[in-house]
């Protein structure tokens, strides 16, 4: 499944319409449950934020047969 298909499916599964902030809420929940982690790279004017899949997140995907090898 491509990223765009996953996003469309997530919106469809939520009734076809989501708040603009819904992805932030989903990410926050997954970070809280330790499936994802936020990383900050750079300094001062060139700071970038990344969301990274944790080992727990990879295992959850593998358990569902969704992790590509």
Walk me through this protein's architecture:
With 69 residues, this protein is α+β, with helices and mostly antiparallel strands. It has one domain. Helix content is 45%, strand content 17%. It is built from three helices and two strands; from the N terminus they run ααββα. The chain has helices at residues 3-13, 22-32, 55-63; strands at residues 36-41, 48-53. The protein is globular.
Enumerate the strands of the largest sheet in spatial order, edge to edge or round the barrel: 1-2
Structural class: alpha+beta
- On the 0 to 100 scale, the average pLDDT is 92
- Radius of gyration over all CA atoms, rounded: 14 Å
Whole-number tally of structural domains: 1
Strand content: 15-25%
Shape: globular
Helix content: 40-55%
Put simply, the count of helices is: 3
Oligomer: single chain
List SSEs in N-to-C order. HHEEH
The beta-strand count equals 2
- Give the N-terminus to C-terminus distance in angstroms: 14 Å
């Amino acid at each position: 499944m491509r990223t765009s298909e996953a996003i469309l499916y997530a919106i469809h599964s939520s009734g076809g319409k989501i708040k603009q902030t819904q992805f932030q809420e989903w990410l926050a929940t997954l970070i809280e449950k330790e499936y994802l982690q936020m990383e900050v790279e750079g300094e001062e004017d060139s700071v970038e934020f990344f969301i990274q899949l944790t080992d727990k997140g990879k295992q959850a995907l593998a358990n569902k047969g969704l992790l590509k090898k």
